[in-house]
Amino acid sequence: QVQLVESGGGLVPPGGSLRLSCAPSGSSFSIWAMGWYRQAPGKQRELVALLLRSGSTSYAESVKGRFTVSGDNAKNTVFLQMNSLKPEDTAVYYCLHRGAQGDYWGQGTQVTVSS
User: Fold this and answer.
1) 20-59 burial, b for 16+ CB within 10 Å, e for fewer?
2) Of 35, 49, 83, 107, which residue has the fewest beta carbons closer than 10 angstroms?
3) Buried residues in 78-109 as b, exposed as e (16+ CB within 10 A)
């Protein structure tokens, strides 16, 4: 069974930076895409950034120019570099692996942007 382990969340002041990491443990499977979603209190989970195996990326409009998704296809690890963080970026961030066996999610890591 595949498990995704996230790390890198925390408390940061507005304008600060964080780097999230996600690595799989357990069984492996063919992945088409890796990425990050987030869910703020009282809101639906939303896409933040997606990285296709081809290298193509897509971002939510609200994070374009501030966040960068990257990954290592050989290790199926995915990263999210978050710069110029804003209070509205506060949420639980979830790692996603999408492939032939469906979607796998991490347990979530809290990101809080506050002074």
Assistant:
1) bebbbeeeeeebebbbbbbeeeeeeeeebbbbeeeeeeeb
2) 107
3) bbbebeebeeebbbbbbbbbbbeeeebbbebb
106 to each of 62, 65, 81, 86, 92, how far by Cα in Å? 22, 25, 17, 23, 11
Q: Which of 83, 102, 84, 106 is nearest to 93 (CA)?
A: 106
pLDDT in tens, 13-38: 999 999 999 999 876 678 899 999 99
- Cα angle value 107/36/90 (rounded, 5°): 80
Q: Give every residue of the chain whose pLDDT is below 50, as ranges.
A: none
